Predict the 3D structure of the following.
Amino acid sequence: MRADWREELKGWLGPFLAALGHKKRRLWAPVYLRGLIGPGERKSLQPMAERLGLRGHDQLQHFVASPSWDDGPLRQRLVESADAILGGQEAVLVVDDTALPKQGRHSVGVARQYCGCLGKRANCQVLVSLTLAKGEVPVPLGLKLFLPEAWAADPERCARAGVPEEHRRAVAKTDLALAEIDRVLAAGARFGRVVADAGYGISAAFRRGLSERGLIWAVGIPKVQNIYASTVQLLWPKAATGRPRRRPVPSEAPVPAEMALASATWRRLSWRRGTKGPLMAEFAALRVRAAEGEQLRGGWHLPGEEVWLIGERRTSGETKYYLANLAAETKLEELAATIKSRWVCEQAHQQLKEELGLDHFEGRSWTGLHRHALMTMIALAFLQHLRSRERGKNRARSPRASAAAKPALDPAPARRRSRPRPASMPVLRRRPTTRTSSQSAQVVLRQW
């Protein structure tokens, strides 16, 4: 890593430091970030202080855990920086969550719940995440702690962990995600679509919330999600006696998403080229209306707005299902590219943890956890800034490199073998590089 990367960090941090105001915070913010970005396996306070040559970690502790100052302006600057790197209609906003395994019961929000990184229920904290992404480049915009009901029902426990009174209540992850979406929209984030997995897409209220905000979305759903055909009608049958009906009746019964796509035409598509060749799966799509409206007496739900139902048959044999409110004329290639754009948030979570120490924080407080998470996101935004600049330099050099390169010799015609090729598919109108975000950031730092 080049020695003057610290000077570049200081210059890039200018808008952040201006937002901090107090000179002590302007001093310690770059120090904390240097500790996160610099070498070292453990990114908790004491190891960082030792590597930074500090006499102790008290000042770092005060900076990251003190509730006496508002870090809202830093979050605003993070959105602005991410938007400058990636923002636009080609970008997607990925809604997901990430878990931080924890021992004990005193760290804020820790409980036995599903831990994605372990693939099972375990003692952990869960953070709802928003990530702005384009191609293979992600920049996280928000990490918000999900407070389990056991915590919300225990005011004393919340008080000991410094949970603000307005947050001492059980809020669904989907509602946390919608509130965070409102925040980043107000901060000026630009993106063309919102994507999420079935943990969020299963909620009809979440899907309606996205539509009410005028957003285009594609979300996962379980295979048992009830679906109506797009031609379903609402009937008002009249009874010979009794009061008139207060609700209409669908003209047909809903069926599970799995059954709705059983007789559909599936096409094999490639959405990206991986390290071992094209990534391929089979896709199918139908225009449908999800059963997500008001519940009828027989247990059915009234049909909602007309959307796309998309199926994905993976090479592993697994089949996934999605709903998307993209326009009716959208091609299957674009539908598939949209739902597959979600994977890049996993890269962001991985780098936040493995490279920048998101899960290394050893404090117990609400403020400390959220501010440490914020600093790791700012650190990753800086790395993506470096990567974006390097990509620009490579793009500027590419015409000369292409002109000097010699074309590869084709094999003799007699030896060629015709192979069926999957239909190519645009990745949101931009072809990404094959290198992952985490790998590219490490390469850039090694060059520095």
Remarks:
- The chain has 16 helices and 15 strands.
- Confidence is low (pLDDT under 50) at residues 400-448.
